[in-house]
Amino acid sequence: MPTPMLRFRGEYLEDVASGRKTCTLRFRRPKFGPGDRVRLAFGRRDRPTILEAVVREVVELHIPEEVEVARLILEAPSDEEAERIVEALAADQEGADPPPYAEVLDRACRDSGTDLLDLLADMVHANTDTVWAIWFEVVGA
User: Fold this and answer.
1) Residue 137, phi-psi category: left (phi > 0), alpha (psi -120 to 50), beta (remainder)
2) For the whole model, what pTM was predicted?
3) What is the rounded CA–CA span in Å between residue 81 and residue 109?
4) Percent of the chain with pLDDT over 90
5) What pLDDT is attached to residue 45?
6) Torsion of CA 15, 17, 22, 26, to 10 degrees
7) How many whole angstroms separate alpha carbon 23 and alpha carbon 32?
8) Treating both helix axes as pointing N-terminal to C-terminal, what angle do 79-93 and 64-74 enclose, rounded to 10 degrees?
9) pLDDT grade, residue 141 (50/70/90)?
10) What is the mean pLDDT of residues 23-40?
11) Of 16, 28, 10, 29, which Cα lies nearest the Cα of 136?
12) Are residues 131 and 105 in contact, defined by beta-carbon separation less than 8 angstroms?
């Protein structure tokens, strides 16, 4: 079986090669798991720059509640209505324990360089409530 490939925009090459970006978030279930070797492809499809990596961890994050809140905010008829939704949610969550996946989601966003709100907006647009966090380690860079 050929080595699986993860594609990235060319601008991420330096961050991945230096170890500043060690995770990627994908909306499709990966066909590989921890310990598998993958190829990271950057830039043009016809002549990508390739780095070899080993997958360290893969976590499925199913977050329908967060995606639904993001959908409500994005579809709000006005900025005032969106602010009202955010304020009501903040009041509801005050003093509540964070969900069990919160720490993993925060780590995935931090390690991938992704803003949580941007991720949620992308999930609304992709019409999905599940994202896979894939941590990797570049080898031989």
Assistant:
1) beta
2) 0.89
3) 27
4) 81
5) 84
6) 80
7) 14
8) 150
9) low
10) 96
11) 16
12) no
Of 117, 103, 104, residue with least CA distance to 71: 117
Give backbone dihedrals phi and psi of 75, rounded to 5 degrees, phi first: -95, 0
Place of tokens 């016809």: 46
| Tokens (6 digits) for 124 | 């609304």
Residue 46 pLDDT greater than 90, yes or no: no
Q: Which structure tokens are listed for 133?
A: 């966090």
Helix/strand/coil for 44:
coil
Tokens standing for residue 4: 């699986």
Q: What is the pLDDT of residues 14-26, one digit of tens each?
A: 999 999 999 999 9
pLDDT at 88: 87
Give the pair of three-digit tokens for residue 127.
């019409």
Measured CA to CA, the distance from residue 133 to residue 58 in angstroms comes to 6
